[in-house]
Specification:
The protein has five helices and 23 strands. With 339 residues, it is an alpha+beta fold. The protein has two domains: 85 residues, Immunoglobulin-like, CATH 2.60.40; 209 residues, no CATH class. Strands 2-9-8-5-6 form a five-stranded mixed beta sheet. The chain has a four-stranded antiparallel beta sheet with strand order 11-12-13-23. The protein has a three-stranded antiparallel beta sheet with strand order 10-15-16, with no helix packed on it. Strand 19 and strand 20 form a beta hairpin. It is elongated, with a radius of gyration of 29 Å.
């Protein structure tokens, strides 16, 4: 009986110690303070080589002081540094990179986050290839941007999208993409709110001096030259999407999504790229690498302007229309070929 009593007492003691230990562990968990808020920092998904960047951590609501922010970014001008706000230089080599951020405090559990970024060098043909640049070019006196152009039909056409930043915005407001796809403009911005008809008779709008937004007749002249037969604006332009779309690459990756239905032969040298679109007054962006859209100076009605578009999975170059202010598309500029 005495043995049993001692044995029972031992079991109770062991159980009590176990409970005590669990309570200590629970207390330890309860005392573990977590930061309130979401650790954030803004970094565009695309940047240019050697671009200077200002990065700032934000989003932690508690604690309000005593946080150490640590950044890690292999390949940048600084591999590792501390500070809530920092200035760094992007890598001098193109490719995909990751920027890590950690927030630490002596009395709180750390928080971490990261952002992926692609570094571009549009001026290097090894990094941005597949575009056909002819011998003829102009310099836009407003900003110094260079545009190549080509005679197609009776007109000179830009062979890249307008990049002027006096209006519109680059896709997703990422400045680096302006060098590839140009800016997106509402119809009102592109045309200056002016509709027009007649060959090479469009409004200057956002174009450089001496150039204009293509009218319906300009587009018809363009389509007729490519189709080698008269073609109207209000037509699907069968097969012409393949003739104007460039099978270009960026950092050795296809810019257009691949499709057997549209091989992007670019036999015209027009260099169409899928710059996507914006809507809701530049609050939303969509269709990058999937669609390209280009304004016409013509209008469907008083509220809607007309445009042509190409889808990666369709060889045609049809037309449509959208709100003059709500929707934003790319711009090509034209002029008479004898000017």
């Amino acid at each position: 009986m005495r043995k049993y009593s001692i044995y029972l007492t031992s079991l109770i003691l062991i159980f009590s110690l176990s409970i005590s230990s669990c309570k200590k562990d629970d207390k330890k968990d309860d005392d573990n303070n977590y930061m309130i808020g979401s650790l954030e920092f803004k970094l565009p998904s695309y940047i240019l080589i050697s671009q200077e960047l200002d990065l700032a951590a934000y989003g932690i609501l508690e604690p309000e002081t005593g946080i150490t922010y640590t950044w890690q970014m292999t390949g940048f001008s600084i591999d590792s540094t501390s500070g809530q706000s920092i200035t760094v230089t992007a890598p001098s080599k193109t490719g995909d990179y990751i920027v890590y951020l950690t927030a630490k405090h002596n009395d709180f559990t750390s928080k971490s986050t990261f952002r992926e970024v692609t570094v571009l060098d549009p001026s290097n043909q090894e990094n941005f290839s597949g575009i056909i640049n002819g011998a003829d070019s102009i310099i836009d006196n407003r900003d110094g941007n260079k545009y190549y152009y080509k005679k197609i039909g009776n007109l000179h056409w830009f062979t890249s999208n307008l990049r002027w930043d006096g209006a519109g915005k680059p896709y997703d407001s990422i400045n680096a993409l302006n060098h590839i796809f140009g800016n997106l403009y509402s119809w009102n911005e592109a045309t200056g709110g002016v509709t027009a008809n007649g060959l090479a008779n469009g409004p200057q709008g956002a174009c450089p001096e001496g150039w204009s937004i293509p009218t319906k007749e300009d587009w018809e002249d363009f389509g007729t030259a490519l189709a080698e037969t008269p073609i109207s604006f209000d037509n699907e332009w069968q097969g012409l999407g393949d003739k104007v779309a460039a099978n270009a690459t960026l950092n050795q990756k296809n810019i257009w999504k691949y499709s057997n239905n549209n091989l992007k032969s670019n036999t015209s040298g027009w260099n169409a790229l899928p710059g996507g679109n914006s809507s809701n007054y530049f609050k939303s962006f969509a269709n990058l690498n999937l669609f390209g859209f280009w304004w016409s100076a013509s209008e469907r009605d008083s509220n809607n302007g007309e445009y042509r578009f190409i889808h990666f999975d369709n060889e045609n170059f049809p037309y449509n229309y959208a709100s003059k202010s709500f929707f934003a598309a790319s711009v090509r500029c034209v002029r008479k070929a004898n000017s």
